[in-house]
Design goal:
single chain; mainly beta; Rubrerythrin, domain 2; three-stranded antiparallel sheet; 3 strands; elongated
Length: 73
C-alpha cells in the first residue's frame, strides 16, 4: 500500500494517505476528494556503524534536500 502526500484544494491541508488499489482518497479534515498529489523526495538512511548522515535525495546545494530539487537542477 503506497503512502502518498496530497494537498487539499478545498481546505489547503497537506496530508499523507495510504491509498489501496483504485480507492479515491479523501481529505480527513473536510472530506473533499479534490486532492492534488505532491511529489515526494525519497529518504533513506545508511547502515549503522557508518559516520555518514541520512540520505535525502538532494544535490547538496543549500536550497536542496527534503522537498528540494532532488538533483534535477
Amino acid at each position: 500500500m503506497p503512502l502518498y502526500e496530497y494537498s487539499c484544494e478545498q481546505c489547503g491541508e497537506r496530508i499523507e494517505l495510504l491509498v489501496r488499489g483504485g480507492e479515491q482518497p479523501e481529505c480527513p479534515h473536510c472530506q473533499s476528494t479534490k486532492l492534488t498529489k505532491l511529489l515526494s523526495v525519497v529518504a533513506g538512511h545508511v547502515a549503522s556503524g557508518s559516520d555518514a548522515g541520512p540520505i535525502d535525495g538532494g544535490c547538496g546545494r543549500p536550497q536542496c534536500g527534503m522537498g528540494g530539487c532532488a538533483g534535477l537542477g
